[in-house]
Write a structure and sequence with these properties.
By secondary structure, the chain is mostly beta strands. It has one domain: outer membrane lipoprotein receptor (LolB), chain A, CATH 2.50.20. About 10% of the residues lie in helices and about 45% in strands. It contains three helices and twelve strands. Strands 5-4-3-2-1-12-11-10-9-8-7-6 form a twelve-stranded antiparallel sheet, covered by helices on one side. A hairpin with a 5-residue loop joins strand 8 and strand 9.
């Protein structure tokens, strides 16, 4: 199966920390059919508006639920612009820790290794849960529109789509949805505070169904992270 829009599986770790939510019926499309084509430069400007200009450490608590069980814990995400991410998650009292380092839509490493085998959605959805949109793949058909405080845009490769809706009002919001072959892979919704920092995030995965809610506890900004952050834990 072609990996359009880099639909890599992140594993149970990133699933619990980066994917959310279960509803039994798939949501409707985010982007209206009548939305007009837009040039790559316009899309790049819309994406840039979501990318942090400084390095930041986001700490959060998470709660995962599906039809059979629920689990929760705490985690953190370190973002270094424009596209580097270190992601850590653990259960109660630090149980079952896992971590990943990502550049763009590709993993540098994931621990434990077998975590990649079990997960669900993809890296654009994980980035969206942190309030960041991704640029399109080469060859994607681009459509979008900006009206008032709301910008809506779509990347399409055949029947695969990645759609965003961004509201810059107060409070702000970013929605992202991935469809493969017309079927919803997942939908992320992140809400922002008055300073533009994420406050809550949710990802809905209709096929499970399952839901993970993230509540952001603190955000620390810095000039840069220590190089060891980008290395696997066993190398520290």
């Amino acid at each position: 199966m072609a990996q359009r829009f880099r639909l890599y599986r992140l594993g149970e770790l990133v699933y619990l920390a980066g994917v959310v939510a279960g509803c039994h019926s798939a949501p409707g499309p985010l982007v209206p059919v009548a939305v007009a084509p837009v040039p790559p430069e316009q899309v790049a400007a819309w994406v840039k508006a979501t990318v942090p200009t400084d390095s930041r450490l986001l700490r959060f608590k998470w709660l995962f639920r599906d039809e059979r069980s629920s689990a929760g814990g705490r985690g953190s995400a370190r973002i270094a612009p424009p596209d580097s991410l270190r992601f850590d998650i653990a259960g109660p009292f630090g149980s079952n820790p896992a971590a990943a380092a990502v550049v763009g839509d590709s993993p540098l490493w994931v621990e434990p290794e077998d975590v990649i085998k079990k997960l669900v959605p993809n890296y654009p959805l994980m980035w969206a849960l942190l309030g960041v949109a991704r640029l399109p793949d080469s060859g994607a058909v681009l459509r979008g529109v900006s009206e008032g405080n709301t910008t809506t845009w779509q990347y399409a490769l055949g029947a695969d789509t990645l759609e965003y809706v961004r509201s810059s009002g107060s409070p702000g919001k970013l929605l992202a949805e991935v469809r493969q072959g017309g079927k919803v892979v997942g939908r992320a919704e992140t809400r922002f505070g008055d300073d533009g920092s994420p406050v809550t995030a949710r990802l809905t995965v209709p096929s499970v169904p399952a839901r993970l809610d993230l509540t952001f506890l603190s955000i620390t900004r810095s000039a840069r992270f220590a190089p060891a952050i980008w290395q696997p834990r066993q190398q520290h």
